[in-house]
Structures are given as structure tokens and as C-alpha cells.
Amino acid sequence: MDGIADHIEQRLREVGTSDRAEDERRYLKSKLRFLGAPMGQIRAAVNEIAREHRRLTHDELIVLVEALWTVPIHERRMASVLLLGRFGRLLGVGDLPLIERLVRESKTWALVDALAADVLGDLVGRKPGEVSPVMDRWATDGDFWVRRASLLAELRPIRTGAPIDRFIHRADPLLEEKEFLIRKAIGWVLREAGKRRPGEVAEWLAPRTHLASGVTMREAVRYLPAADGKRLMAAYRERRPKHRSTRVRARGSATRRR
Description:
This protein is an all-alpha fold and 258 residues long. It contains 16 helices and no strands. It has helices at residues 2-15, 18-28, 39-52, 58-70, 74-86, 96-106, 109-126, 128-138, 144-152, 155-159, 165-171, 180-196, 198-205, 214-220, 226-237, 246-251. The chain starts with a helix and ends in a 7-residue tail after the last helix. Residues 244-258 have low confidence and may be disordered.
């Protein structure tokens, strides 16, 4: 597995440039080293390995992922995440501690979002009863990257028609979160949910327009009927709920995060 990991790195070194490496490092605000390889080339390298090793076992996958991840180079870590997504069928609930560790060590949305939306999203879709309680715990974690992952884990299921109940259960106490990437994540998932379940999104948002941030609201209303979006944004600008909700009013600011 070390040899395969080094082969991937060498391939990406050959297509990387120093200018791209510096631009990517600044853009992602990452302390990792960068080879300057385009995302398309990282995917191509992973696809090549996946074709050559179709019978990769679970244990071999984990060893390869660890071999890639251990070296603090962005492209190696991204390749490890893509491999987890490509061989997601091999993963189970027992792999959640590994995924959690990778999320905590990522320190950039580029890695966290791929782990959450693709790897965790697949697991949630296949094993919701087992994975969802873990995501509920993550939603209250002190690390905002872990909280973000718990929200984005519902993107893939929602896109394929899953109900939004699990997501809004986690999102509700995070609406007053000050961290921009949490606010953005809530809006992102609501935006996707609005494509299939606009009525449910509007109904949930209506009594919370005075709690949600601007970025959350702007994303959330994007695919709602124009009239609904206009009413909700007007209520947001006036910092009032669209209509009263005893539960939300009672919650008040008691659950506001640090």
C-alpha cells in the first residue's frame, strides 16, 4: 500500500505546478504542503488505482488511506478521501472513528466537505439508523468542522429523496451559530432540500427567520417559490419570525452557542 500511495504522489507531482500549489495553499488557508495538481488529475489518479485494484479489501483500503493521509500533502489527503468515497461500499459503522479523526485533522473545507457529503453521506444513506445517532453527537461537538460534517452528511440522502427531519433536528440549535461555515452549511443543505421539499423548508424556516443568518437565508430560499422566498426574506430583514411558534419562542436564546 505504501508503494501505491507513493505512486499516486509521483503522478501528481508530475502534473503539479508551483504557482498552482501556492494559490491553492492561500485559497484553502492550509498548513499542508501542496503539489499544485488540479482536482481532475487527483480524480484520474484515484480512478486508475480503483480500476487496477477492483478487489481491494476493506483492510487494504484502510491501510492505503492511512498511507496517503500520514504524509501532510494536500493532494495525498484528497486522494485518500476520494478512495474512501470510491470504495464506500466497503465501509461500515465501525469506520466512523477513523472518519471522525480525518475530519478533525483536515482543517479545511475541501477535505471536510468531501468526507461529509460523499463518504458520510453514503453511510447515512445505507445505514441511517446506526449512523444518525453518531451524527447527532457530532452536531454538538466543540470542533466546528465536526459540526459542519454532521450537517453535510445529509446532503446526499436529501438529494435522493430522504426526509429532512434528521437534518433540521441538528440544524435547529445551530441556527444562531456565529461560525460562518456552519451558517453556510445549513443554508447549503436547505437549498438542496428546497428543490424537492420546498413546502417543508419554508414551513421550518418561517418561525425562525429572526434566528437565521443572512447567508443561511439567502441559500435556503434559492429554490423556494418566489412568493415564499420574498415573504421569508422580508421577515428576516425585519428580524421577526414569519409566524409564531411556541417551541421556538420558548427556546429563545437559551441554546445559543458560545
